[in-house]
Amino acid sequence: MKRVLLVAATTGYQVREFAEAARTLDVELVLATDRCHILENPWGDDAAAVRFEDPEPGIEGLAARGPFDGILAVGDRPACVAAQAAERLGLRFHPAEAARAAANKLLAREHFRAGGLQVPEFRRMALADAALAHVRFPCVLKPLDSSASRGVIRANNQEEFRAAVERIARIQDGDLLVEDYIPGHEFALEGVVTGGKLHTLALFDKPDPLEGPYFEETIYVTPSREPEEIQRQIRETAQAAVTALGLSDGPVHAEMRVNDHGVWILEAAARPIGGLCSRVLHFVSPHLTGSYWTLEQLLLRHAMGEDVSSATLAAGAHGVMMIPIPHAGVYRGVRGLEDARRVPGVEDIVITAKEGQEMFPLPEGSAYLGFLFFRGASVNKVEKGLRAAHQQLEFILSAALSVVK
User: Sign of the C-alpha dihedral, residues 222, 108, 105, 162?
Assistant: First the structure.
């Protein structure tokens, strides 16, 4: 039986997607995590402890548990650890230096600019000095190492800028990246890299305007409705970003904006799409065994050295909504779930919020209430169906326990 090492910060639902994929492929999945495995152990086998702040001792311990046939990671920091472990264990993955650059907003911008890609003007600022800085408006403030859109705030003038600095300071310490706001439509590209060459698996449109002051992602739909020429430019930009960072082997999740000046790269992460969003992706291939491949099955095959370049997105249109948090509060339940599931085209609705869990919208929050999946004959029908199903849901949030100003 082949064995694949999966590096993850927690044993959450995205890890379970890989566990199920490994089961269907008859692959042993070994989890390496910095969370105490005694608290939750879904496989009935000991997870390997790797402290992400100091991974070397844990990586040495992993060597004793080998050999492995492949390695993958869930999340940005785990991808950095996986890259470091891959170099020690002799496994194919992105180089450690490239993974670290991809996970750091400042380093990524520097690599992109050096590679000739279009990026907004940017500068690094210490939180203590930022409130007094002179910047161009509109601008966007971003914590250097935060994930998704947590702590990301647009400011249109000096007063909003100072308020954003104060708000980010309450979320975390560390320096900021301040960059020009780039207008345009936003897209996400899911792909896999082999020997430095990017194979695009899916291109998502993000139909909701992401104009600020916060940048909460909601709907992803695929295939893209953009003209083929725009799609070609997006794919070429993603490949250029992969090359600029030095990513070589493994999954890539890239995001970009497109306006009249072309494609602007935002990120090219050395990991797959997060949360449960991958469930929307079904792939077909001439070498297919079963009705379709999930993204996790495809990535496991790639990690073990298989050629997945023949995989293409299944026919039809597909969409996912990351259900946003309407306001801060303690989650108490949801009404209208069965009505939403009866909307034609709804494939599934997964509520990931737990009763009693304190929920915060962006910029403080880092989670969603759940995920809504839809399939249809056209992308327009998928987008419309996602919105119709979401309108049936009423989330009950009582007063928040914490105070967020």
Answer: negative
Q: What band does 35 get if pLDDT is binned at 50, 70 and 90?
A: low
Extended strands (E) in 195-246:
197-206, 219-222
Q: CA-to-CA distance for 251 and 240, rounded, in angstroms?
A: 15
C-alpha to C-alpha distance for 378 and 239, rounded to whole angstroms: 27
- Distance in angstroms (rounded) separating the CA atoms of residues 142 and 257: 17
Cα(78)–Cα(36) distance, integer angstroms: 15
Query: Edge to edge, what strands does the sheet with 358-359 contain?
Result: 358-359, 329-335, 394-398
CATH class of this structure's domain 183-317: alpha beta
- The pLDDT of residue 285 is 84
Q: What is the C-alpha separation between 362 and 142, in angstroms, rounded?
A: 13
Give the confidence band of 289 by pLDDT, cuts at 50, 70, 90: low
Fold type of domain 319-398: D-amino Acid Aminotransferase; Chain A, domain 1 (3.30.470)
3-100 folds as: Rossmann fold (3.40.50)
Using alpha carbons, select from 189, 191, 254 the residue that is nearest to residue 226: 189
H helices present in 25-157, as ranges: 56-65, 76-89, 96-103, 105-114, 127-130
Please compute, for residue 292, the number of CA atoms within 13 A of its CA located in the half-sphere on the CB side.
13
| Residue-wise burial string across 239-250, b where 16 or more C-beta atoms lie within 10 A, e elsewhere | bbbbbbbbbbbb
- Rounded mean pLDDT, 338-350: 98
Find, among 115, 113, 177, 108, the residue nearest to 140 by Cα: 177
Contact by Cβ (8 Å): 222, 207: no
CATH architecture of 121-180: 2-Layer Sandwich (3.30)
Hey, what amino acid is at 323? I
3-100 and 121-180 have identical folds = no
What are the residue ranges spanned by the domains of the chain?
Answer: 3-100, 121-180, 183-317, 319-398
* pTM given for the model: 0.94
Weakest-pLDDT range from 109-113, 148-152, 174-178: 148-152
Question: Which letter, b or e, does each residue of 280-312 get, where b requires 16 or more Cβ atoms within 10 Å of its Cβ?
Answer: bbbbebeeeeeeebbbbbbbbbbbbeeebeebe
